[in-house]
Amino acid sequence: MPRTVELTMTAAVRATTDVLVVGAGPAGLAAAISSARHGAHTLVVERYGYVGGNLTAGLVGPCMTSYSLGGGEQLIRGVFEELILRMEAEGSAIHPSRVPAGSPYAGFITYGHDKVTPFDPEAVKVVAAEMCLAAGVELLLHTLVVQPRLDGDRVTGVVVASKSGLEVLEASVIVDCSADADVAARAGAPVRVGRDADGLTQPMTLFFRVGNVDDAVVEEYVRAHPDDRRPFASIVEAARAAGEFTIPRRGVGLYKTLQSGIWRVNTTRVQRRDGTDVGDLTRAEIEGRRQVVELMGFFRRRLPGFADCFLLDTAATIGVRETRRIVGEYTLTLDDLVSGRDFADVIALCGYPVDIHSPTGSGGGVDEQLRTANAYQIPYRCLVPVGREQLLVAGRSVSSTHEALGAIRVMPAAFAMGQAAGTAAALSLVDGVSPRQLDVARLQAVLLRDGAYLGRGFAGAGRGV
Ligand SMILES: Cc1cc2nc3c(=O)[nH]c(=O)nc-3n(C[C@H](O)[C@H](O)[C@H](O)COP(=O)(O)OP(=O)(O)OC[C@H]3O[C@@H](n4cnc5c(N)ncnc54)[C@H](O)[C@@H]3O)c2cc1C
């Protein structure tokens, strides 16, 4: 145990709000916009200088499928689709209905990769912020939420740190979209981490983009090598044998972008690091950047179409796939996803399959063996932490098992959960009940009216897909 010291200090109350959303990633954006649209004064706090979370700071993309596994039904609509349609209108995204499985935008992957959404991360920073402001959301950027404030079991606000120093934000309801359950965990709500057997989490990846790639040569090479189980697997194997490829990956994750000659790279891999420990995050950033340099050399030497490529940029932060998951009123399991279980309190549907990058080895990715249903449901109770009041959680840290998280962690699902959480927060204030006591049938009716999708013929609580 580290040595501790006691701190006593006075901090100014910077703001008092109805709904406070922590984190402006996919879940937080959808939560804030939805909350404000339902009349709650909504403040969203984000540690970076722009919104988007992994959409922007993480350089993560494309958005994985928002459709059913078979690609036949669009499951995630609402705020997510609104953002994409606005970006598409200005040429900075392609609607997923136009992106088939196996396309270069989908990294040439077919299983689970039908109808992904390519987008320009710079556009997200502007368009998503505009959507927040238009909805009446107050944005507070460059601000890290450090510590929740409690009155008994009720979370009443947070201490934040910024260039303005330490300040307090008070709120009637807090929606924790930090992806690490920062508020819930520090408020003492129970959390779980990693695999049941050893607590290990999925590895981290520093995304980067390369420019001046010969797109046609890349696409032709992949088409001509259908036997490579992962794109460029045989080239990776040869390079590894020659001692030129030390990263624990079996192929290269390459995703074409909207700009010709520019590809996103999802290939670095940093294992056995804890995304909630700043020492581990520091070590992971350094290792991630070392791997980028190694990969750039490998690309130029060995990858067809990459001989003259340059490093365009790296993400502002290493991407953290997995940290804490809250223990909620319900914990979503792999079996729920495989059986496509109906939940009376369904608030989102998803079709992305289980995608667990190995915490220890070079394998992993979308898993065709763990066959999830064509569409599976996420219930409201996964967003409601046990033991703490006036708090909801949305996005990567909702209540699920390690295996189920491997599927629901993608960005469209985070938007859908965020929309539900933000709507629930605002409705709970209108109805004068705690989020735990909210009438879920009413929440579902409002979500449907707001363009979310809860299944064909869904007509209220008790009816599934
Ligand atoms: C390497 C990697 C590759 C991935 N590939 C894909 C992919 O191709 N497609 C896909 O759809 N999904 C992919 N994912 C999954 C997806 O990016 C995340 O699971 C998803 O972004 C989760 O959304 P979120 O809103 O919960 O969290 P995030 O996107 O992480 O957003 C959380 C936000 O909260 C902010 N924040 C955190 N803590 C605090 C705090 N204490 N105070 C203030 N602000 C805070 C962060 O800065 C961030 O903006 C990938 C993830 C990783 C890491």
UniProtKB/TrEMBL annotation:
InterPro entries: FAD/NAD-bd_sf, HdrA-like. Keywords: 4Fe-4S, Iron, Iron-sulfur, Metal-binding, Oxidoreductase. SUPFAM superfamilies: FAD/NAD(P)-binding domain. The keyword Iron applies. It holds the Pfam family FAD_oxidored. One of its GO terms (molecular function) is metal ion binding. Signal peptide: none annotated. This is FAD dependent oxidoreductase. It comes from Planosporangium flavigriseum.
